[in-house]
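Renewal narrative, Specific Aim 1. Our central claim is that a sequence can be written position by position from structural information alone. The example that follows is taken directly from our test logs and has not been curated for this report. It begins with the structure tokens describing the chain, in the order in which they were read.
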């Protein structure tokens, strides 16, 4: 996925659609390689796309 040509709203919609379809591959394709996913306030739950 090329983030330079896709609006943020489209990425969010793609991820939501993938979540609802239970398609983990499409869901994770929306993540950046260096993404960090936290539980508030500071518990790291997931990192990147792996």
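The sequence written for that structure reads:
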């Amino acid at each position: 996925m090329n983030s330079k040509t896709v609006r943020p709203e489209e990425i969010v919609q793609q991820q939501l659609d993938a979540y609802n379809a239970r398609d983990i591959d499409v869901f994770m394709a929306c993540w950046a390689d260096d993404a960090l996913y936290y539980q508030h306030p500071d518990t790291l739950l997931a990192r990147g796309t792996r």
